[in-house]
Fold this sequence. Notes:
Layout: H1 2-43, E1 46-51, E2 54-59, E3 65-67, H2 71-80, E4 86-89, E5 106-110, E6 113-114, H3 116-121, E7 126-130, H4 135-142, E8 147-150, H5 157-168, H6 171-195, E9 201-207, E10 210-213, H7 221-227, H8 234-238, E11 243-244, H9 247-253, E12 257-262, H10 273-279, H11 281-284, H12 287-290, E13 294-296, H13 308-321
Helix pairs in contact: 2-5, 5-6, 6-13
Amino acid sequence: MKKKFLFISFIALFMLILAACGEKKAVVEESSTDTPKEESTNENGARTIEYLGESYEVPEKVERIVVTGAMEAMEDMVMLDVHPVGAIAIGGKFPELYASVTDKAESIGEKIKPNFEKILELNPDVILGSTKFPEEVQSKLEKIAPTILVSHISTNWESNLNLLAELTGKQADAEKILSTYKANIEAAKSTLTEKLQDQKVAAIRIRGGQAYVYPKEVFLNAVLYGELGLAVPNEVAKAKSQEAISVEQLADMNPDYLFVQFSTDENADAPNALEDFKKNPIIQNITAFKNDQVFVNVLDPLMEGGPAYSRIKFLEAIQQNLVK
């Protein structure tokens, strides 16, 4: 009886072992089924990146980038030495401003007029468009390749630079650029705070023969007021967007230092607008003009003002002209 009981116990134990082995085998098989899926995803070259709260699926290795509409992205290309296969033309040619990175690029149309057929022909891995694009343009671009609309809002400048860095594997370069710039801002701020304590500094752009001011966080103002902490003139503080300013209003502002940006491309119907502006007797009575503290085109007129490249170059101009 005892032997019979031991035999039955042995059979039960054996069955338990077989069941356990079966479960283990199933787990192994299930795991081996998951692994190829992960490898397959990597082999397909897909990865997800985050930009301004949105997720984008892009190739694992991005080599062929087309930029259309986003002048901000073009400036970031210069900063990170990224060479697109397709880039924005101005007046049918690439501006000298972008010459260092357009050596391998083909024109994909003007700033606001993308050539979809040419973009398709270039077979891009990623398209960098602009948040200024209407939905129908975005939709057409997305049918060609993964498309990311780069923000034209100047406060997103760091995110824009980091986006391009992540796409191209240049995160270390972007980090160095940002840390160096921020250190230089702090150094300039300590010098300028006392020197310009009771001074007004302003920046205007002449377009279509008319002078314009911008909100305190837009254009060159982001550096002057947001980062260097200079006093914001009332006319700038009141601006909601790009707003025309008359010579009388500018005289009322009466800046001690004035930065003026003027592009012939933006003043085709008023090519003498800058000279006429400077010769105006009302303008000549402004403190900045009387003291020869007016600085014209310290940046290339095509520069946006908000991106890292603009900020770095503008800070250099401020140090050259205001820190004396």
